[in-house]
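= Protein in question =
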Amino acid sequence: MVKPAENQNIFRMIVYFLRKISNEKKKKPYFSQAVMLFLSTLAFKMEMTTSVGRLTSVKEYLLWGQVQRKLTEHARICGETYSFFDAVCELYAEGAASLGSEVPPVSFMDWDLRDVFVLAYAQAVSLRANGPRPARKVREGNIPAAGVNGFLGVISAVYLLYLLSQTAYFFSAFRGILPKNFTAADYARRGFFEMAVLVVLNLGMAGTSNVLVRKNGKAPLSTRLFSLFLLIFSLVLIATSFSKMVLYVGSFGLTQLRVLTSLFMLWLALWVLSAVVTLFRPRFPHMKVAVLAALVLACAASWADVNTVIARYNVTAYQTGKLETVDVETFYFLGDAAVPYAAQLTEDKNELVAQDADAFLIDWAKAHSDWYTDEKGVERFPFDDVDWRSWTYAEAQAREVVIDYLCARHIPISAPELRKPQ
């Protein structure tokens, strides 16, 4: 944020831009929206760091009212679409040069989240007022299709030979077989990074090739078929990488990173599928589909309580014999969600697992209570009432489980002076 001492110079910058709007917006189509966006942010910074009543003169106070009116006016009438960050940088440099060295440098890297919201709101209001965007004119390709097809044909042949020569490496995970000289972790990690690099390259090659050779808004059929092969090969790589991850999870259980990696592979598959549709339906909004899929998966991961899913799966898989052991240390990363499932392991036949589960529950109790050791050397865990503003279901459930666990082992959960009378 801009320091309070710099507000006067920023105010001068705002006034400078206001005076240029009427003269420059006819010459530069993007000028009015650039000014509106930039002034919104500068005005917001001033409101956060100073009071309007502290302006040094009546003239400045009246100009500040003009700033507010102009911002509102341009938010309603301006809606041109352009690269506004480039325009803002250009305008700020111009204003700084005219006002001299007194104007402080404002770096976009120093903006915080509130500034981003201001920009997003200004952009949304202006576009809404301006109506739908005009249809963009599709540029025609200027490269012969034969050369591009030859390049894609060579790449496709190399991919096909590589896939056939490494069939066992790629597809053994579907049968639950781990290749020699590989651990499950190395097999999954190597498969993921190989897949990610190749999928990004294939998407780039398919998209660029179709743009370079398209005529009348569509690429030749031969180019689209070669691109289709690259995208299908990408889907095969994603499927094999996912099978390696399943093999890895089947051996060691779930973690947050493994869940998020699996969701990322699912998102890549959806993006590739949308790119396949675009090959034959050029107006299909595949980038919007990719962004929307990412948002949906991110929301699903947040609402699904991933930590609870991980803890439940690992404990259930261990108790049913699917996993040979369970790593209780990972419960520390899962927080409150892991407490009910850790309690199920305190009576496990494996002494190491039971000890680790006991230690985890005790550590949780120490972290969520006013734990102390009394004069007799007895550990006590007095739990305070939870403020309703910070209450969560997961923590309430975990607290109940831990209190039952401590009571079952006759561990004091309250200070003697806080006990209720019998």
User: Anything to note?
Assistant: The longest strand covers residues 372-373. The CA atoms of residues 1 and 112 lie 7 Å apart.
